[in-house]
Amino acid sequence: MKDYLVKALAFDDQIRAFAISSTNLVEEGRRRHGCWPTASAALGRTLTVAAMMGSQLKGEETITIRINGNGPIGSIIVDADSKGIVRGYVTNPEVHFQYNSGKLNVGMAVGTDGQLSVTKDLGLKDYFTGQVPLQTGEIGDDFTYYFAVSEQVPSAVGVGVLVDPDNSVRAAGGFIVQVMPGATEETLTKLETALANIKPVSTMIDEGYTPEAILEAIFGKDEVRILDRHDVHFECKCSKEKFETGIMSLGKDEIQAMIDEDNGAEAVCHFCMERYQFTAEELEELKNR
């Protein structure tokens, strides 16, 4: 299934909803960083939420999510924009914990002694940052808490990643459901009942549910009004030119040391693991610019 997300309204426009199929996006992140299963789930859940939150942006606006619960996985950092472009990484990708049931124990990997922060770059040096303490480290619960506390929007966030025995991502997806101002008690009761009875998101994606079908499973087929659809994918904005700028900022002495000691340099992007080689001649040119 091609990765994409949908934006919708439900229950007579009293509920705003997003749903996404993100299997390929998450698998690309796993592949680039060599994540073990639990790290794949932690990164994948965050990539999935970021894509849906990015769809709420406009134009060139971007969002950066940082999660650090002081667990073995270290930090999770993910960027997304309004066009469905997402990238991200974890500090320690070789982390794997399971519950006795075999389910991936993301909370143990992430930890709860830390923060979830969301920074929105709205352009023209205008930034908005919201930050909340981590609640469970399971990602979905933490974003539910973030929306309620930082953005004052009652929400339910469901995300899931299913990893195959060969360590590849078999299914990934998610939803965000948000209560609009003026929603009735009857609507809230219907929503709570629906959310309590749906299958896990990763199960639905694995069974072939589309994003539209996920929302129909929550609200009922006749209760959903789709507003928009767009593709999502993993893509990094790094380039050799950007690393050139970074190298020049080190100063002539540091660049000369690279030439003398290593006869060149290699730069690696944290977000995508792309490697850029610089010869001694290229470094000499950068030093003299």
Automatic annotation (TrEMBL):
MF annotations from Gene Ontology: protein folding chaperone; unfolded protein binding
GO cellular component annotations of the record: cytoplasm
A Gene Ontology biological process term: protein refolding
Alphabetical list of InterPro entries matching this protein: Heat_shock_Hsp33 (IPR000397), Heat_shock_Hsp33_C (IPR016154), Heat_shock_Hsp33_N (IPR016153)
Major place of residence: cytoplasm
Annotated disulfide bonds: C236-C238, C269-C272
Highest taxon, organism lineage: Bacteria
Keywords on record: Chaperone, Cytoplasm, Disulfide bond, Redox-active center, Zinc
Database matches in NCBIfam families: PRK00114.1
Recorded family membership: Belongs to the HSP33 family.
Name listed for the protein in its UniProt record: 33 kDa chaperonin
Organism of provenance: Turicibacter bilis
Gene: hslO
